[in-house]
# Entry
Amino acid sequence: MDIDRESFFRTQIDNMLVKASWVDDLKAKTGVDGVSQVWSDKPEWYIWIHGAPGAYGLSLEKTDMICLAGNSFLAGRFVIKCYPYSDQPTFATFSPEERHALSSGLFDLTNTPRLEDRHRIPSTLFTVGSLTLLIDADETGALFTFDSLDRLRVVQMRQGEEENAGDALDATLGKVVRNVPGFSIGYLIFDRLVCLYAFYGRIPPQFIGVTRSPGFEYGVDTSGETVCRESTDTQHWAISLLMSSTDPKPDELWRDHLEPEEEEVVFHRRRPRPSDPEPKVDIGVNVAFNPLWWELAEMDLKSELGSTCGCGEHVNHSCLTGRTQSE
# Structure
């Protein structure tokens, strides 16, 4: 397929978020308070969700064409960031470097990086997980997969500990400087993006699957070098949700996407319904089916805003809309 994949995913996310920003009833139901496109060299957005522990960043990092179960899919991998609010309990779980950046004037009143200062914030900071979006060639469906660790840990190793870099980190031997509940924080924006796609595409869920695999953590030695090592104290979780207007083979599609030698299937269900029992998956976060995933696919909500961009008033902002962006 001859297509500009980056532009394709930019358009898909833009269209979802534009609808979210235009329709007050949709914003109220999903709790999406505001969205804003980030003017950068790659597709990127900020999203604010009512009651969330921080403002979110969503950026497209990689695209590809892949084949699953004999079908072609456009694949986009997005990085999810969370810029925590200082009055939230999770703020203390972020690293000292992240907390310092938030209080250093690099962020504006929306709790997102100032446009002119974004380059001063290391790209490794504030990441809480990743989203993979697979969309078939006919755009009749999409497979959303969110993955992260239950705890995103960084340990400051003591002098001499680096010699055992091949062993699992022992938190008692070093200071834990980052211990972010990545899956719990990131699941909130995953849930809302699925809601928006259901409304935008008029497509309900067909399949839900959850996997678990061994976790890892990072150690920082006395020279500042970082090593990644296995950890028995963390686990990597992934939840996938297939939205489709056709009748594909969701189990086959999903399993073809897995790495069976690494991932343990802990939950899967075809054609789930909001009334189904909650999945018995102990990952420290509520992964109950959100009824809005089904309801929004059938709702006919209209915009009550009058201007061509969907804003009630013309202000200096970077529409998608809902938040003013710093100049």
